[in-house]
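step 4 of 6: structure.
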Amino acid sequence: MKSLIQRRLLMLIPTLVGISLLGFILLELMPGDATTLLMRRSAGEVTPEAIDNLRRELGLDRPWPVRYLRWVGRAVRLDFGTSFSSGEPVRREIFSRLPATLALALGAFTFMLTVTLPLGVLSALRKNQWPDHLIRVGAIVFHSVPAYWLGLLLLWVFALKLGLFRVVGQGAWQDLILPIVTLGSGMAAFYSRMTRERVIDVLEQDYIRLVYAKGLSRRILIFRHVLKNALLPLVTLWGMSFGYLLGGSVIVESVFSWPGVGKLVVDAILNRDHPVIQAYVVLMALIFISVNLIVDLVYPLLDPRLRPRRSAEAMEG
Amino acid sequence: MKRLICIATIVLTAHLVALASAQTLRVGCGADRYSKAEDYLTFCKWDPNAWITEPLVSRGADYTPKSSLIERWEKNGNTYRLHVRPKVRFHNGAPLDAQAIKHSLALYSQNRSEFLRIDPASYRIIDPSTLEFTSNQSTVHFIGLLSHPFVCAYAPGTDAVNAPVGTGPFIFKAYRRDRYLKVTRNEDYWGEKAPNREVTFRFISDPQARAMALINNEVDIAYPVDPQTLMALPPKGDYQTIVSPINSYLLLTVNIHGEPPFDTLKDERVRKALAFAINRKTIADIAYLGKAKPAKTFLAPWFWNQGEAFLDGYGFDPDQAARLLDQAGWQLKPDGMRYKSGHPLKLRLVSGWPNASVLKPVPELLQQMLRKVGVTLELIQTDDDGVYYGNYMGPGQGDLFLEKAGNTGLTPDWLLYMLYHSQTPWLESGYKWSLPGEEFDHYVDLIRSNMDPESVKENLQQAQRVIVDKVCAIIPLLYIPDIYLARKNIRFNPDAGGGYVKLGYAQKVSP
């Protein structure tokens, strides 16, 4: 495990360099000039001199390799520059919003697990019976429904009609409920079907039949034997999904006016706000790498077959 | 006795809470776009304008400048002498004087897009309430520029970036990015005091969510309201739509100098045929529920009292459209489409400015209308300005460009010069493809060099005759007001529109 962590940490730096460089290059290739766009929105009369001045001020007059090296030099000190749009330090812009996005993603992830496991298991245990059909149809529906539409529908029903929630959150925990359900539903629908398939696969294994024949209760069978083996392959996917939840929250943040990072970065892309986009790319890379590392560390704990050989050899000895 | 006191206390408290909330106005506005960059200081000004600071002159309903913080002014060539209104104080008690005006103008001069062009070495404080300076701005309508919300008075020695101190009817109270801006009433305001003790601006980026927040009584006013939200509103509810005077236009900018394959509209007959083929009333009725008006030009009829009669314009006349297309050699075939030398009449419409989302469903309506005269319209719709200008308008990769904008400039030549004059700074953004030519430039130059109102009006009209009737470099579609949604107990007069409207002056009345 220690060597795994060491290897991953060693890979971290070249990975981040590669991703940040790729991000920089892609920004250069985007259509539209950032300076011109900013000037267009400034509602004033512009001159070629004013455009040149702004370009110099934003550092966009230098070749991109020079800009990239300067950015790296500042980034190692956690200085990601100043947002072109808001004039605020990028670090403050992102980190002030990150907790809101993390809360949303964690909440959606928890919701997803809470829904996926019982529904997936029930659907498998009642295979081809009405609960199974109902759950599978529901999964198709919720997987197909766009998040934007679902969010507005939930607002209409639970906020407008039933008056149970606010349309615009004000930071209370109750304001998280509808956004979490919106963000987590699609993923819950997808994973409930996968869980169903996995549980069915495991239930048909010989060792499960043996365990059942030995007289173990259904409950112990499911929780101690079936679930552990069925869900192992899904753990890696869940890890990746957490990263997607972070990035995919932009629509939900927009509908529910949730002040998270997703909306910030979409606006940054439309505004060609290079410092914000670049910092976001690196941040997301870091989060994905960290989550994958955690998954890789947790996996052997769940599956003894993946534990280090030394202990196995020692036992043989 | 104790019980009576308890009941009285509860009743009084409830009454006070109701009174306090009645004096608090909640406005649901779009996403938080405030900037605190020192060269683009829009915090609390744009958009929404919270009226913490005030522009130096005010904008009359006809766009002519009126006295405000600057009570009167004199002009001698390019030298301007401003006389400050007496007895006006900033929120911190400091007096508004010539020094403060100079400080504010110098602050504004750092703006990335500075249009006053004041020579910093030319400032002269004649007396405590009189300031003089020289400007290199080439338009004679300089004073009108001082009514822009960006050109406002800040108290010297205060933090304009984080806690602006102005002279306005509202005082800065609290701000949380992407959540809210709170302001309180300035009890010592020199002008008409605001009716609301406190105003909270809630940033709600999604237009549908904004409308829902209003219907759910979480805000009292919601704006802006786009066509799709208007169409989706329930027929009945505790809300009303409030419409400002015409503040914006919707038009098609035409690529009249295009290169193949976007050179079809070099033929004036085809351009005019398109203009005649469009039923503007239908677009106004469907997209804006009748609140917009068919337009002959793009500057509102009340602008400089110009009216509309000076223009022929383009009414809905599909027969005339067909005749023009026939004359241009585009023959109608049995499939209902037009062809010339074996090529179909296919045009590309790129939507648009400010973004495609607020312009829907206009492109689809145009597509249907033009199909009826045998024109195939390919639609490209993008919310990304960079793509709109970088991929399409800039390189002329389109025939028609759909744009909605307003004459936010305060001089009569503003839009005409900024977009369609051959000296426009936005030439390479794509407006070079629509330049109407020397005759248009001539009239715009006359506007910029002559202050006589009758002369300005005459030249305005001439310029529009050229660009609309003669050259057809633009196809006006609609005049569009600003549309607000408000609770039924709100009384609000949006006579100014846009960033000039004082939302905080909306009043809650008893049902």
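step 5 of 6: annotate
 - Chain A touches chain B through 52 residues (CB under 8 Å).
 - Chain A has a mean pLDDT of 86.
step 6 of 6: archive
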